[in-house]
Design brief:
8 helices; six-stranded mixed beta sheet; about 270 residues; binds zinc ion
Amino acid sequence: MHDVKRPAPSSQPRSLFLLYHELRSAPSAYSYVTSTSTFAEHAAFFRLPRAANTLIPRITFDDGHLSNLTEALPILQANQLSAHFFITAGWTGTRPGFLQAHHLRELHAAGQSIGAHGLTHTLLTHCSPAQLDRELRVARLLLEDTLSASITTLSLPGGRFNRAVLDACWAAGYTQVFTSVPCPEPEPLGRCVGRLNLQADADVPFLTRLLDPATGTLLRLERIDRLKTAAKRLLGDTAYRRLWSLVNREEREAAPAGEPEGASSHNGLLP
Ligand SMILES: [Zn+2]
């Protein structure tokens, strides 16, 4: 599944793309909800001058939760940071708790980047060629119509991809696809960009270790990700999904259509 050719190592500074989903003021046991106060601590840390030889943190959000605007944007702005928001286009204006069209325009007008996250959050590896084309192409057109801007980036629902999915992405007009494979990225970015899914208990000391390659923290997570990919192959999607829900204390109402992009967690639990 992760057979994408990696560019040769570069002496240029490298980035680490971090993946968030929903922010919430009240505490939640669900691993894919980050508390607003924790995100504020992260943002304040990201704003600090970077130590030599450490990775540049880059922020992304998946799914298009309303809290991206109400909770994350003020914190980003207070810290003069920007993020890349990947939107499940078919949920815009149709699903309570998710961004509506005018919210997307507000985020975009505030200088934040917008990309697509499929049309219905269906795992793209499960789609027929016709479904795949619809998930990719209609999502892009809906977002472009909403924002009157070109949409060229996509993040993969559930992090799932294979060669056919990537080929369909390029054919549908995307030039960059964001995965959930944790790895440092050289600049300029390639066509496939890895990301680390951050779970709720990621704190600043963890981020400090994560961004310093000398600690080996990211390497360890890359190894765990490879093991999880192998587990998915062995178990199949249905059994893996059951295990995922159990381990992440999923709230049924919070993630009704497919798992979040959690290929990775820093605590080593599935996924
Ligand atoms: Zn998602």
